DNA sequence: TAGATTGTTAATCGATTAACAATC
DNA sequence: TAGATTGTTAATCGATTAACAATC
């Protein structure tokens, strides 16, 4: 399927964005789109779009463009979104609840199968119909239910420890929301979502704008 | 202060990460660090670290290295984190609550001043001591309280509309968590935090790992 | 002073854009 | 067929890395 072995991360990070726009087009009933039109919509150059897609195969048709639905499906398959994933959430605080809620609201192939916390007040309650369990049992649960992804929604102080436990239990991926960089063995994929970093970038750009405004 | 007018976004995005590591060093009581040691810690090359910092000024000392606290303060100032920011949160669901909670827990210069929702069941309740108000009054509130940043925690369907309202009311920045790309006038800085995109990248990397494991 | 490490210029590498031949 | 638009190669641009003179 793949034409090239090593695809740069920059390309991979653009794929979900392409897919989102294709999904919108699909909903609007648009059948086909050219790289030029898609460029106009997404803000990426037509050249880059074609270049990116041709890392994986020739999905278009000369003189015509790309099938919206076809391309959507191709990108979904490249990302592995044609498969299902079972997740556990470690930490049933507001962030954990938000994640559970989010995956519930925007139905996708990622299914929260278990939620865990150390707080006795939370254990036994349910979030979107899923029972919150004792964190002590997380390894056992992951092993028995073949969980694919661990979601870390704990405070940063315990995040690495939780990650180690989840890796030991056999997850293939970690989705970390604690504001630290989680270290994992190379065979466990990890995404550190640094929400606060983006807020700091925002502050920088706000101040740039303000300085520019003051100069006038 | 700045030596150069145009700093690339790649550089800006590394600054919060540098700052996080410096903060950890500070807490451990480390006084100074060389670019070599910092490289080892952060995973960036020593060359890149020095190159990045020298976009803003010579913060180090030859033969010695960088003062941990001094550099932390410099980066904070570059990002504008020596200032305070007032935020309003639009959407008091789980995600909105998580943001309020997060800024409360990790005390920073970003202060949530108001929370707004359309749901009558939520209006009047409090989150971390902050009253949830009627979304109808958000523009008035932003204008009267000189709010700097609007945080969008609504479903994607209403996100752009909320953004337009906040821009009209006079915020300088938008921090968007809805899974759409918000469009704003150039003088309003925007960070679209695409949580789901990172999950899709994670799926890609998980499948890469699995394929590699199967080949063996 | 000698040693260490920065600041900065030059070289390399990779990613983006432009151009155009292939083809539907 | 003629027109349109892809797939792909070549050119450009920018970002990262290497090297080293400056200097604490």
Domain unit count of chain A: 2
Tell me how many strands of chain A there are: 9
Q: Ends of chain A: how far apart? A: 55 Å
Overall shape of chain A: it is globular
According to CATH, the fold-level topology of the largest domain in chain A is: Rossmann fold
Tally the helices of chain A: what do you get? 8
**Sheet having the most strands of chain A:** 7 strands, mixed
Provide the β-strand percentage band of chain A.
Answer: 15-25%
* Global structural class of chain A: alpha/beta
Overall mean pLDDT of chain A stands at 95
Unreliable sequence segments of chain A: none
Give the strand line-up of the largest sheet of chain A. Answer: 5-6-4-3-7-8-9
